[in-house]
Amino acid sequence: MTSRAVQYRRFGGPEVLEVVDREDPVPGEGQVRLAVRAAAVNPLDWKLRSGGMAKEDAPPQPRVPGFDVAGVVEAVGDGVTTLAVGDEVLGKSVGGAYAEKALADAKALVRKPAEVSWEVAASLPVVITTAYRALAALGLGEGDHTGTTLIVDGASGGVGVYAVQLAVSRGATVVGTASPAHQDEVRAVGATPVVYGDGLVDRVRAMAPQGVDLAFETAGKGALRDLVTLVGSPEKAITIADYAGSQELGVVFTSGGDPDEETRALADGVARVADGRFRTTAVVTYPLDQAGQAQDDNQHGRVSGKLVLVP
Length: 311
Ligand SMILES: NC(=O)c1ccc[n+]([C@@H]2O[C@H](COP(=O)([O-])OP(=O)(O)OC[C@H]3O[C@@H](n4cnc5c(N)ncnc54)[C@H](OP(=O)(O)O)[C@@H]3O)[C@@H](O)[C@H]2O)c1
What we know:
Bound molecules: NADP nicotinamide-adenine-dinucleotide phosphate
Helix content: 25-40%
Structural class: alpha/beta
Number of strands: 15
Largest sheet: 7 strands, mixed
Number of domains: 2
């Protein structure tokens, strides 16, 4: 059987993406094949597509973008005992999610609650697991963190909104940066909003006279030095988006974590979405053949919320 997928054979702008018919991928040991209901766009997708993160001149083989996926199990590989055909799941795919059919490790998937739509489900895996991992690395893991003040740079973004809500649920006081247009969204998820950009240190000091203990940089827009100034030392900050700044300032850059821990975090985050403890971001959907437009809109901040492809 064949099905449609988005792929690129060379690095470049959104124009390198093409929709092709391909043989359905066959699940390997421990994997399942999903009939994809929705696949989210993340900044990493267009960073990889651009070639900016690659050592080689072109992808060694055609590459299907995308990690976040929600869908129905339609085939199981050897050794899979936890999932069966027909199960509705979400998680991170292996080998690309912008497709009608995608593979995933069964261990990386969690069940989709009925209360969560396919589009919202697909929007969760990368941002939820990243928020949990970064907060744990900052010392804001499970437990009561009353008395700790955290600043989240990029608090209106995909990762930012869950980082704010998770930290608030653990008792922390949170200050969140966003553009003027997104101050209300930051307030709605439980943080005190502040506009990012020049003068950030003074604005935050004026609004948080108790001082800021920890900083989570999620935007990659050059605020890391200001955040270190606010918290007093680089060990009290973490970044997921400013690798050069992390090297220069001695701040931890986190990317990827223990797979079992990520699945536990995803399950916890999804449960909070299902019962309303986590507010979700707005979701904007695109058909598969507009994947390039969706990536471009995300890269240039044209559309607020999570951008999700619906095959
Ligand atoms: N290392 C990892 O494991 C990992 C995992 C996930 C994501 N990431 C990276 O983290 C970054 C954010 O991902 P995301 O999915 O949250 O992206 P996103 O949903 O596109 O959000 C981007 C955020 O950046 C904010 N922003 C824009 N310009 C800013 C500025 N000058 N100063 C401060 N904030 C600014 C935006 O605020 P406004 O909309 O209000 O302007 C928005 O809140 C990306 O670079 C992504 O590649 C890394």
